[in-house]
Specification:
The complex is a heterodimer of chains A (75) and B (168).
Chain A: E1 4-8, H1 15-25, E2 32-37, H2 42-53, E3 56-63, E4 66-72
Parallel strand pairs in A: 1-2
Antiparallel strand pairs in A: 2-4, 3-4
Chain B: E1 13-18, H1 27-38, E2 42-47, E3 73-75, E4 78-80, H2 92-106, H3 112-121, E5 125-129, H4 130-135, E6 148-150, H5 152-161, E7 164-167
Parallel strand pairs in B: 1-2, 1-7, 2-5, 5-6
Antiparallel strand pairs in B: 3-4
Helix pairs in contact in B: 1-3
Classes of the chains: A alpha+beta (75), B alpha/beta (168).
């Protein structure tokens, strides 16, 4: 169970990333953020985002046409 | 430039020269600037010539299909371009702009206003080209809160220290 969820379904690039970043900023280190998106580009983008920012992409799954990302804030 | 989990990347930086102010061309600089800022980069945008009006308080962004053969809009399962001669019809640019704005809304694409606000909120440094301000007779009062004035040397100083420099 994530500590917080961002629903970015229906939003296109770069909004899922921007919304996720906004939520991560207010999250304490160690806490997790769940992001839901329908933009297929988000799969690669969240990998790149986490590699670059040092946050931990714990899970990246697909259910139907919804992509779910679980990110643990590290810094 | 992957970093180990737990280690934030040493701060990288990016600068963008923004030279175009039509509805379509306004997107790449704002998308890249906001995304880079979200990924922890220090970002500077330098607005010059037709890019400068993107800083105006009230945006009225338009695009023109004239001389743009690559602009084909999805319509009833097909893609339709507009012949150049259609641009002679008064109001056609306005119609095309409205169509594009509606399409973007439908597809969940952010508005330029939204991306611009995100840029300001994520501390993207905005520089308005002083020469262009003089040329087109704008003052900082016409602009949103945030931009500073600067010239070519101001930009070059930023560029010499940036990891990524883009001209759009």
């Amino acid at each position: 169970m994530a500590d917080q969820t961002v629903d970015a379904k229906g939003l296109n690039c770069p909004l899922p990333i921007l919304r996720a970043k906004k939520a991560l900023k207010d999250l304490a280190p160690g806490k997790t953020l769940e992001v839901l998106a329908t933009d297929p580009g988000a799969v690669k983008d969240f990998q790149a985002f986490c590699r670059t920012t040092g946050n931990d992409l714990v899970e990246s799954t697909t259910e139907g046409n919804v992509f779910r990302f679980l990110i643990r804030r590290v810094e | 430039m992957a970093v180990e989990p737990g280690k934030a990347m040493a701060s990288k930086s990016m600068s963008i020269i923004v030279t175009k102010g039509s509805l379509d061309w306004a997107y790449p600089p704002f998308i890249l600037a906001t995304t880079a800022a979200a990924m922890g980069l220090d970002v500077t945008m330098f607005f010059t010539f037709y890019g400068l009006p993107l800083l105006l308080k009230k945006l009225d962004l338009q695009l023109s299909p004239l001389g743009n053969p690559a602009m084909k809009m999805p319509m009833g399962g097909m893609h339709m371009g507009m012949p150049n001669i259609a641009s002679m019809i008064p109001g056609i640019d306005g119609i095309a702009s409205t169509m594009m704005t509606n399409l973007m809304k439908k597809k969940g694409v952010a508005s330029i206003e939204e991306l611009r606000t995100a840029a300001v909120e994520s501390d993207v440094r905005l520089i308005a080209c002083q020469m262009t301000m003089d040329l087109f007779e704008y003052t900082l009062k016409d602009m949103i809160e945030g931009p500073e004035l600067g010239g070519a040397a101001t930009y070059i100083e930023v560029a010499t220290k940036s990891d990524i420099n883009l001209f759009i």
